[in-house]
Specification:
heterodimer, A: alpha/beta, Rossmann fold, 2 domains, 6-stranded mixed β-sheet, 20 helices, 36% helix, B: MetI-like fold, 15 helices, 77% helix
């Protein structure tokens, strides 16, 4: 493709890459921060390099530098990016435009957002090929259809006529992969391509991507925070932290014999010991035959659901998106009044609607949400946020309130210095901790945790789970833990309800639910959780009993 | 066309008709609240009670208000807008020509203003926060901030008095060729364009900037599209709904808000007709013109709503 061929085999050679950005902290002078500190990497033709690390590690920034692209004012200030034998950083804007979409293509985390809602899929898939003049429209469309077929998309001949909103998330992710492959590039940057998908869909997309990479001999940078995922597709893995290289080696070496402590922490992240508690005699909260629907009864999202939660214990509700997990939480809290059935708390039936419930009932049930940053008022300090339920439920004021806020901050392992901070000044994990403190402030008997660790990096999420378990010991609070992540469930649950299309398909104590024989859906869920093992993907695909819902 | 669109469009139209009826009630009620009535106005202050009573009988003013309203409404629906008190002429006939003139002026102002505003908006986004953006925004805002009569007189001073390229008074009459007509309305059309330009341009800029943050814009950039192609092909189609809305709002202004400009340039349109008859307290004419302005406003807004619905691929192509 490029004019001067490099020494054979070497496609990408990044040397001492330094990337900086200017930040504008409120009330301070703008300052320059370094996002990537002199990172070097090489990638041979047809090979896959996994870039792994937490958010802020610089993985995406490094990946995008291979296209000369910096998100939101990010600048490449040092080093060389040698692609096909030439330093692309010297090519200027025109040079970047010529290589983007032709030599290097990009697959984004959320294909649903990365496709333009106003255009048909086919127009978007062939756009880059037409722009760079590498194919006529007819050729490009033929190639696209062949790729749709290779990526096992349904109706490969006609799916291109659809608009993005007419196609499911997992399918869109595959169409995006086809879009990247359609220009026949030398390198594809996959930026967390399966992170936003359900586990059962993730495995399909992962397998499709892996096959496509193998058959087209394209090289890839595969960016993710999930080591188990990257172990399935990569030849080599590079571990990054705070914009610096931690460790770089073959996939087997990284996951089996990590040399750095940080890599080891990533490899063993999911292991929390949690002893299962036996269910008591009287449940604290009983959901009895609840049926709920949206759209005035048209769309039934919960069908005859019954579960019990015992004092001081954790019920985990697992299922894919659309299975009705969050709707169950909405029905319990009264945000969505059930059409049939009832919710019994401490021996009394709760009002169906939120407005029918007295303050005492509201106090007993608290919620923590997935997105901590949008669940807090950005203009209130941590002290005000945590103090609010203290004022509202207990009428605490002034010094008494501040004292209690400080106690709560201690409980969530954050110091006193945080009381005057604003949410924007906290990290993702700290924000979630503040939300936990806010829910604890009401002294509830039950906290509903809706995907509280899904938006967090694995190590941070692990810290939150440990905190929740400790708090359960101290405060004797029960959790209804909604999640799609089975590893989390194993770490925290006493009993488990598996939901599928609005119904509870499997329910019981943790050991019972996780012991074979499984029903088909639970089997699919369990077998879809990526394991830190080379060759797991092929084994899992071969051993499946049912198709995933997203397909 | 698929069913959800048909349903939504039908709803909008039905709502528009309902709104127009409500406006007609308001207009009618407004003229009823005014002291005195048509009979009093025709006969003047020296009228005797007998002659007043006779005329009221003759005009049907003795009937209850709601019957008179339906009588008026029935007339409007059949194209009979009543008779002007001051001149005794049929209102529909005199309005017809003037409405046509107003629409002619609005049409040509729109033909210039809309593409210009949208193009300037696109250019402003392309060079956002740079000097080109600031220049476009500054000039557009300045032209909008000046009152339209000021702009009108400035245009007259430069282009009619100093250089004599265009006439200062926009007289149009039957038998004029299109070219002559266009020359006659050049200055009022330019004044109108300057007045509505900034609003549309700023809105275009804001609406497009809003979608420039989207992931699909990044996707387009990473395909190697040029900055302008990204804006035109990927950002603009998704910003179309708010842009159509503001365009229609300004189109409505071009029709119903031209009063001042028409008076300055002595252009025989609806605005001038309205002003003439307001000074003469000619209630039937004011009613008729008010209703027509309301109808224009409401229908343009319905068109904006429908265009926004049709522009949405989610509604055009349901799952």
């Amino acid at each position: 493709m490029a004019d001067g061929k490099a020494k054979s085999g070497l496609l990408l050679d990044i040397r001492n890459l330094r990337i900086e950005a200017t930040v504008y902290p409120p009330g301070e002078a703008p300052k320059t921060i370094t996002l990537v500190h002199d990172v070097s990497l090489t990638l041979e033709k047809g090979k896959v390099l996994g870039l792994i690390g937490e958010s802020g590690a610089g993985k995406s920034t490094i990946g995008l530098s291979s296209m000369g692209y910096g998100r939101g004012g990010v600048r490449i200030t040092g080093g060389e990016v040698i692609l096909n034998g030439r330093d692309i950083l010297k090519g200027g804007k025109e040079g970047f435009r010529k290589l983007r979409g032709r030599e290097v293509c990009y697959v984004a985390q959320s294909a649903a957002a990365a496709f333009n809602p106003a255009h048909r899929l086919m127009d978007q898939v062939v756009e880059a090929s037409l722009l760079h003049g590498t194919a006529t429209r007819a050729e490009a469309e033929k190639r696209a259809v062949a790729l749709f077929r290779k990526l096992s998309l349904p109706n490969p001949e006609t799916i291109g006529e659809r608009f993005p909103h007419q196609v499911s998330g997992g399918q869109l992710q595959r169409v995006m992969t086809a879009m990247a492959l359609c220009s026949e590039p030398d390198l594809i940057v996959f930026d967390e391509p399966t992170t936003a998908l359900d586990v059962t869909t993730q495995i399909d997309v992962l397998a499709a991507i892996k096959d496509a990479i193998r058959d087209t001999h394209v090289a890839a940078l595969y960016i993710t925070h999930d080591l188990a995922v990257v172990a399935q597709v990569s030849d080599e893995i590079m571990v990054l932290r705070h914009g610096r290289l931690v460790e770089w080696g073959g996939t087997r070496q990284i996951i089996k014999e990590p040399r750095q402590e940080y890599t080891n922490a990533l490899v063993s992240v999911h292991e929390i010991e949690h002893k299962e508690q036996q269910p008591g005699t009287t449940p604290m909260l009983s959901v009895k035959n609840v049926t709920a629907a949206y759209g005035g009864g048209h769309v039934k999202v919960l069908k005859n659901v019954s579960v019990d939660i015992f004092p001081g214990q954790t019920l985990a509700v697992v299922g894919e998106s659309g299975s009705g997990k969050s709707t169950l939480a909405r029905a319990i809290t009264g945000l969505l009044p059930p059409e049939q059935g009832s919710v019994v708390f401490d021996g009394r039936t709760l009002g169906n609607k939120l407005s029918d419930r007295p303050k005492e009932d509201l106090q007993q049930l608290q919620m923590i949400y997935q997105m901590a940053d949008v669940a807090m008022n950005p203009r209130q300090t941590v002290g005000t946020i945590i103090g609010r339920p203290l004022e509202f439920y207990f009428g605490m004021k002034g010094r008494e309130r501040d004292k209690r806020v400080n106690e709560l901050l201690d409980e969530i392992e954050m110091g006193k210095g945080f009381i005057d901070r604003y949410p924007a000044e906290l990290s993702g994990g700290q924000k979630q901790r503040v939300c936990i403190a806010r829910s604890l402030a009401a002294k509830p008997k039950l906290i509903i945790c809706d995907e509280v660790t899904s938006a967090l990096d694995p190590l941070v999420a692990n810290g939150i789970l440990k905190l929740l378990l400790n708090l359960q010991q101290v405060e004797k609070v029960a959790y209804l833990f909604i999640t799609h992540d089975l590893a989390t469930v194993k770490s925290i649950a006493d009993s488990i309800a598996v939901m599928y299309r609005g119904e509870v398909v499997r329910y019981g104590s943790k050991s019972k639910v996780l012991t074979p024989p499984f029903d088909a859906y639970t089997d699919l869920l369990l077998s879809s959780v990526p394991e830190m093992e080379i060759g797991w993907l092929e084994k899992a695909i071969a051993g499946r009993r049912m198709e995933s819902a997203g397909n | 066309m698929s069913s959800p669109i048909v349903k939504l469009v039908a709803q909008r139209i039905a709502l528009g008709i309902l709104l127009l009826l409500a406006v007609s009630v308001l207009i009618f009620a407004g003229t009823q609240i005014l002291p005195g009535d048509v009979a009093q106005a025709i006969l003047g202050q020296s009228a005797t009670p007998e002659s007043l009573a006779n005329l009221r009988e003759q005009l049907g003013l003795n009937q209850p208000a709601y019957i008179r309203y339906f009588h008026w409404l029935g007339g409007v629906l059949t194209g009979d807008l009543g008779t002007a008190m001051s001149s005794g002429q049929d209102i529909a006939t005199s309005i017809k020509e003037r409405l046509w003139n107003t629409l002619f002026l609005a049409f040509w102002a729109a033909i210039v203003a809309i593409p210009l505003a949208i193009t300037l908006g696109l250019i402003a986004v392309r060079y956002r926060n740079g000097w080109v953006d600031k220049l476009i925004s500054g000039v557009a805002l300045a032209s909008t901030s000046f009152p339209e009569f000021f702009i009108g007189y400035l245009l007259v001073f430069y282009f009619a008095v100093e250089h004599q390229w265009f006439p200062a008074i926009s007289t149009v009459y039957e038998g004029m060729s299109l070219g002559e007509r266009l020359q006659a309305i050049a200055l009022p059309a330019a004044a109108l364009t300057l007045v509505v330009l900034a609003h549309m341009m700023r809105m275009t800029r804001a609406a497009i900037l809003n979608v420039m943050q989207s992931a699909y814009v990044e996707t387009a950039e990473l395909k190697g599209l040029s900055a302008f192609a990204v804006i035109r092909k990927h950002a603009f189609p998704n910003a179309i709904a708010p842009i159509i809305n503001v365009v229609m709002l300004n189109l409505a202004y071009l029709v119903v808000g031209v009063v001042v400009v028409e008076v300055i340039f002595v252009y025989p349109g609806m605005g001038q007709y309205l002003v003439d008859h307001v000074t003469k307290r000619d209630v039937p004419v004011v009613q008729a013109v008010g209703l027509i302005f309301a109808a224009v406003y409401i229908s343009l807004n319905i068109i904006a709503d429908i265009a926004a619905i049709v522009a949405n691929p989610r509604l055009r192509h349901p799952k």
